[in-house]
Write a structure and sequence with these properties.
With 360 residues, the chain is α+β, with helices and mostly antiparallel strands. Helices cover 43% and strands 20% of the residues. A hairpin with a 4-residue loop joins strand 11 and strand 12.
Length: 360
């Protein structure tokens, strides 16, 4: 090749050589933009995760109770104590369903949920809040000791001593080892129902409760958050006006709520899931081993096989107290048989499901 030819082709060769450099420069810019977007997205995900994680409040049950607890049997399944706390502190809670007449915080709803080995079905045992129980000696959050006392109302334990003492009281009265504790505040309960678009329940009879402001006709009704809260609280609108009459409503509503979450596949919908998770975690208090989004998610996944529609709901068998007929006590031998079956993870005898006091 002549020097002239080399000179005439040189610029073209240079231009051709420059193109890969431009492509490489463009690729670097594209990768840089993608990296920024990924980091920004990761930051958003981390922020959302941290926000949900920070919503959850934890109680160190194991530390508070120490070693004085029932033995954990190898085939006893999982036992959860689920409380609905009726705190009337703050304007929002006081305005929900006639809340102004009560002060302090109480465990308005209490269920021991037993999940057998294999986790294909579950049973929920409601403890009437008016049940007279023996409260064991407990240690409060400030380290002070509260002496044990006989014949105290079950729902007063939460108000006077706190959640760890409720767990200890349930363990003492049942002999059942409580594996996990979950508490939901009623104001948060309202927001959770609204977040999923309401819950449909089959109202068993007309309800006209002026105290809670709940007025419903019998039959299927879709309830919003405020109506749902009044529904699980009502005691004057059904049965004999006692706490026993509404326990069936509480159990029915819990099953309907769980079924609604499952039927909508809310856990598979990222947009819906965050809104619901935010509402739920704001209202949630758990034992310390569940007090993180990761732990809760792992626990929820472990129970994917549990069908709410097949969950059996039972009221702790109780009888009217002979000294104070406005209160109830655990009925024997039924209550003992019920707790024994749960401890040993065996079938619950039919006679153990019958309660002398029905609230009808």
């Amino acid at each position: 090749m002549s020097s002239h030819d080399a000179m005439s082709q040189g610029p073209r060769a240079s231009r051709r050589a420059a193109k890969p450099r431009k492509r490489r420069r463009g690729l670097k810019i594209t990768l840089g933009v993608l990296l920024v977007l990924l980091l920004a997205g990761g930051g958003t995900v981390y922020w959302l995760y941290s926000r949900l994680d920070g919503n959850i409040k934890g109680v160190d049950i194991n530390k508070a109770l120490g070693e004085d607890r029932p033995e954990k049997l190898p085939t006893s399944g999982q036992n959860l104590l689920v409380l609905g706390s009726d705190s009337r502190a703050g304007a929002e809670n006081r305005e929900l369903g006639g809340g102004g007449a009560v002060s302090g915080a109480r465990s308005d709803t209490a269920m021991v949920v037993h999940i057998p080995e294999g986790r294909s079905q579950a049973v929920a045992v409601s403890i009437p809040r008016d049940t007279l129980v023996t409260r064991p000696e407990c240690v409060k959050d400030d380290g002070s000791t509260v002496a044990g006392k006989d014949r105290v109302m079950f729902n007063s334990v939460y108000a006077q001593v706190g959640p760890a003492c409720v767990v200890k009281t349930v363990e003492k009265m049942s002999g059942v080892r409580v594996d996990h504790y979950l508490e939901i505040n009623f104001a948060g309960f309202k927001d959770l129902v609204d977040a999923i678009g309401g819950v449909t329940v089959d109202v068993p009879q007309d309800i006209d409760d002026k105290a809670s402001g709940l007025h419903l006709s019998a039959g299927p009704q879709k309830l919003d958050g405020t109506e749902s809260l009044a529904y699980v609280r009502t005691r004057h609108g059904i049965g004999d006006g006692s706490d026993l009459g509404r326990i069936g409503l509480q159990q029915q509503f819990l099953m309907a709520l769980l079924s609604e979450v499952k039927s909508q596949d809310l856990l598979g919908s990222p947009a819906g899931s965050y809104k619901i998770a935010d509402s739920a975690t704001k209202a949630l208090t758990t034992d310390s081993s569940l007090a993180s989004l990761t732990s809760l998610a792992d626990f929820a996944r472990s129970m994917n096989g549990v069908d709410p529609a097949s969950m059996e709901t039972i009221m702790l068998p109780v009888a009217y107290d002979k000294i104070d007929p406005n209160r109830v006590i655990a009925a024997e031998p039924q209550a003992g048989q019920l707790w024994k079956a749960i401890r040993e993870d065996t079938a619950i005898p039919e006679e153990a499901k019958k309660s002398p006091a029905t609230g009808g």
